[in-house]
């Protein structure tokens, strides 16, 4: 089926998921929406996150998408199940694929989750991991300042190293052997996080696992693109076109030239 895949996030972090979709599903068209006017979602209530997510889904459905990827851990944690109840297309979140990989990779049965406040408070990663292996201890840590650090491009910066130390010292004390990067921005901080945690800690990138799950779901539902072709990528935001474009070109393997701004509140 040659319809596009819809992907959305609260901001630019979901581009890490798009990057994995480009790699693993190279013929698929993608429509991405970043809610840059209302980022971050991590500190907002479930009711607000659900409202925003439904507006974005309504927009994506006007583009005749064949599947939707909720490339936002907070929206996956707080809104995914409610969204699925009235959706006519498959909806894939980023939490379950990451949780599954974390449970499988941990040898010490001690897993750390770093995420936004909303995702950590929801307990959704703990719930999914313990469904797979009830012996695993899960330690969650909210790292709210990681998102603005990424969005400002301060990835290899002293202030980022300081914040990594501040947030992750507690997880080091628990001797976790797997750390889930439970926000789509966080894989972009993988280098400073890995340096701090050490080589014996496996970092799980839910973006990679989500693209794998999407691939399986498309196959199961007969939705895989029927021909080998050059894909079309369209990008939409609710604010800050120039900043988004600059960030996208630092993350994606393609050059992003056109970015469209829309009034998401009208959906």
Which features does this protein show?
12 helices, 267 residues, 6-stranded parallel sheet, 2 domains, Rossmann fold, globular
Descriptive notes:
The structure is a single chain. This protein has 267 residues and is of the alpha/beta class. The protein has two domains: 5-93 and 208-266, 3-Layer(aba) Sandwich (Rossmann fold); 95-206, Rossmann fold, CATH 3.40.50.1860. It is built from twelve helices and ten strands. α1 (15-24) crosses α11 (206-220), α5 crosses α7 and α9 crosses α10 (190-197). The relative contact order is 0.20.
Helix content: 40-55%
**Radius of gyration, Cα only, in angstroms?**
18 Å
CATH C-level name of the largest domain = Alpha Beta
CATH topology of the largest domain: Rossmann fold
- By DSSP, the count of extended strands is 10
| Order of adjacent strands in the largest pleated sheet | 4-3-1-2-9-10
The main sheet comes to: 6 strands, parallel
Number of helices: 12
What is the CATH-assigned architecture of the largest domain? 3-Layer(aba) Sandwich
Percent of sequence in beta strands: 15-25%
Which structural class is indicated by helix and strand composition?
alpha/beta
Poorly predicted regions: none
| Total domain units | 2
Morphology:
globular
Order of helices and strands: EHEHEHHEHEHHEHHEHEHEHE
Topology record:
Layout lengths: L4 E5 L5 H10 L5 E5 L11 H16 L5 E4 L2 H6 L1 H5 L6 E3 L1 H11 L4 E6 L1 H6 L1 H9 L4 E6 L3 H6 L6 H16 L4 E5 L7 H8 L4 E3 L1 H15 L12 E5 L3 H11 L8 E2 L6
Parallel strand pairs: 1-2, 1-3, 2-9, 3-4, 5-6, 5-7, 7-8, 9-10
Helix pairs in contact: 1-11, 5-7, 5-11, 9-10
């Amino acid at each position: 089926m040659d319809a596009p895949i819809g992907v959305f996030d609260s901001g630019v972090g979901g581009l890490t998921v798009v990057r994995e979709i480009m790699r693993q599903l190279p013929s698929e068209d993608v429509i991405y929406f970043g809610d840059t006017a209302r980022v971050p979602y991590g500190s907002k209530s479930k009711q607000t996150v659900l409202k925003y997510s439904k507006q974005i889904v309504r927009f994506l459905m006007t583009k005749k998408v064949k599947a939707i990827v909720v490339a936002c851990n907070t929206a996956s944690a707080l809104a995914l199940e409610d969204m699925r109840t009235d959706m006519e297309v498959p909806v894939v979140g980023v939490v379950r694929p990451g949780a599954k990989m974390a449970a499988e990779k941990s040898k010490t049965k001690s897993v750390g989750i770093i995420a936004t406040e909303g995702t950590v408070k929801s307990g959704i990663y703990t719930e999914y991991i313990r469904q797979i292996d009830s012996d695993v201890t899960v330690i969650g840590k909210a790292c709210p300042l990681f998102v603005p650090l990424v969005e400002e491009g301060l990835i290899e910066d002293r202030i980022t190293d300081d914040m990594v130390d501040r947030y992750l010292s507690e997880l080091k004390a628990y001797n976790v052997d797997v750390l889930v990067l439970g926000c789509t921005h966080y894989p972009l901080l993988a280098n400073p996080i890995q340096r701090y945690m050490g080589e014996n800690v496996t970092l799980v990138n839910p973006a990679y696992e989500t693209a794998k799950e999407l691939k399986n779901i498309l196959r199961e539902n007969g939705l895989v693109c029927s021909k080998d072709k050059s894909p079309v990528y369209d990008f939409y935001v609710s604010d800050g076109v120039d900043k988004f474009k600059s960030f996208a070109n630092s993350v994606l393997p393609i050059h992003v030239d056109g970015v469209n701004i829309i009034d998401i509140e009208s959906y």
